[in-house]
Amino acid sequence: MKYSNRRQVSVAGLGLLSMLSMQSAGAYSEDMPPLDSYDHSVSGGHSTFHYELVRTLAAAAGYTERNTLGVMDSKGELLNDASLIAEASHATDTFPSEMLATSRCEALTSGEARHPVTGQTLINDTENLYVVGTLRSKDESVAQTAFYHWPRRQAVSPVTEYHYRHTDQIEAGTCDYFSNLQELPEKNDLCRANTVNFQAELNSMESWVFNADEAALLSNNGITTPCFAATGETFSYVPAGSVISLGIYLHSLGDSYSHQACMKINKTRSHTPLEDEGRRLQAHECNSIIWHTQEEYGVDAGDPELPDMGVEYTKAAAMATWDALKLYSQLRPYATGNVLNESEVITFVNAFSLQESQQVRSCIASTFYQRILQGDNRYSDAILRACKTILQT
Question: What is the pTM of this model?
Answer without folding.
Answer: 0.83
